[in-house]
Amino acid sequence: MEIGKKLRQLRVKNGLTLEELASRSELTKGFLSQLENDLTSPSISTLADLVEALGSDLSTFFKNEQEEQIVFKKDDYFVDEQEDFTVHWIVPNAQKNEMEPILLELNPGGESNIIEPHEGEEFGYVVQGKISLQYGDEVLTVSKGQTFYINGSKAHSLVNKTQQTARIIWVCTPPVF
User: Fold this and answer.
1) How does pLDDT run across 8-38, given as a tens digit for each residue?
2) pLDDT band at 93 (very low <50, low <70, confident <90, very high)
3) DSSP conformation class of 65
4) Of 70, 98, 152, 163, which residue has the fewest beta carbons closer than 10 angstroms?
5) For residue 175, is pLDDT > 90?
6) How far, in Å, CA of 142 to CA of 67, rounded?
7) For the purposes of burial, counting CB atoms within 10 Å of the CB of 1, is it exposed (0-12), middle (13-18) or buried (19 or more)?
């Protein structure tokens, strides 16, 4: 662990200069600079005092933060095969996020689940085929390369009235799939 780097990040996060932290911790600006550049190591009591001056504690300071996954591979996907469609959750555990993207494969003649009215918005991109977007009382055709963008105020679903599988990237905020 790079203690100096983490101390610097915490100091900057708190909007403190080296001088201000030196004053709060009763250490010299030079010593703090050496610490932040990993040129020296603090004693445990000095580190505890520094971390406290930065509004934290040693337990939190040394807690390993889990790396946030940014790129997802096909092996990470969760797949749910239904009679009319297959849902690929392309960002695992997306329900904890503000939006939830899926890859929906609609079989010929298939229909997605009906999404009941909800707060939020949805976006879809037809990757393959042609679908009918049933949005309230409206039925709109969306073909390969076209998109749809709706608010969630009306019940809606996607229907594949063709003999070819349709593939749609569908993103919802907040997650409702």
Assistant:
1) 999 999 999 999 999 989 999 999 999 999 9
2) confident
3) P
4) 70
5) no
6) 38
7) exposed
Distance CA 111, CA 105 (A): 10
Q: Is the dihedral of CA 42, 45, 50, 52 positive or negative?
A: positive
The pair of three-digit structure tokens given for residue 66, joined into one six-digit string = 């889990």
Whether 152 contacts 135, CB under 8 Å? no
> Nearest 5°: CA angle at 87, between 82 and 89?
145
Distance CA 81, CA 87 (A): 6
Whole-Å CA distances, 50 to 38, 46, 47, 63, 93: 15, 6, 5, 16, 37
Nearest 5°: the CA angle 78, 93, 114 is: 70
pLDDT in the model for residue 63: 82
What is the identity of the amino acid at 97? Answer: N
* C-alpha distance across the termini of the chain, in Å: 40
Interhelix angle for 3-13 vs 29-36, to 10°? Answer: 120
